[in-house]
Amino acid sequence: MDTIDILSKEFFTQDFAEEQPYSELLGKYKDIARNYARMESAVAVLSDMRTNMSYIYYGSFSRMLEIDKCGDEGKVSSIWEKEIFKLIHPDDLAGKHLQELCFFHFVKHQPKSKRTDYYLISKLRMKNGKNNYISALHRMFYVSAPSNDTLWLALCLYSPLLFDIPAKCLIINSANGQMTEIGKQDSTRILSVREKQVLSLIDKGLTSKKIAETLSISINTVSRHRQEILGKLQVKNSIEACRVAKDLKLI
């Protein structure tokens, strides 16, 4: 299972309550995406994880990419904007998906009231019509569902890289200006030290009894850690937990 498959599974297995004002709020966020495209000359992609749809707004940057759609609005039956992905350098695209997975877990573990404070920023190489790669800035925001902790929308912005940033990829806290480099964020916010120990032993093929003996804890405690790990990583079994944890570089 690659990173994009993990992301898809985690997005689409979230609990979306049906009786919510999704349509009304979606219109509001579509206007925000459209205005980002206009005011920042960006290509803005608003992805709806509930319906597996994307809405694309083409600012002036689309001319640099030689996509002849400046000022247009597009609709795609997928949350993955493949038209844009094919312009991104393959190495950067793989990194982008892993960064988004890390950011997804980071945001999921923030209080709902604080989630809008954070966004992701990264450098990409994108291909123009002459098959030359140019430097681009990618930003990403997650939007929670109206009434619960589910992450509902993702807004991605692609624009020219007007100034360098101090790392390949950063999580920005817009409320206080704090910057955290992806890969150096506090992973213990996702799994505790003990949970990582347990998961590492699971990955080595040890049974719960053996893990209990190795760590000098009870089997009941091992079982509790297993359930906590599955919940925190939003997966259904230990095999998936090991895969996700490796992608997040937790083990």
TrEMBL record:
CDD domains (UniProt xref): LuxR_C_like (cd06170)
Keyword Transcription attached: yes
A biological process term (GO) from this entry: regulation of DNA-templated transcription
Gene Ontology terms for molecular function: DNA binding
UniProt superkingdom: Bacteria
Pfam families (alphabetical): GerE
Keyword Transcription included in the entry's annotation: yes
UniProtKB keywords: DNA-binding, Transcription, Transcription regulation
Domain HTH luxR-type residue range list: 184-249
Name of the protein in question: Response regulator transcription factor
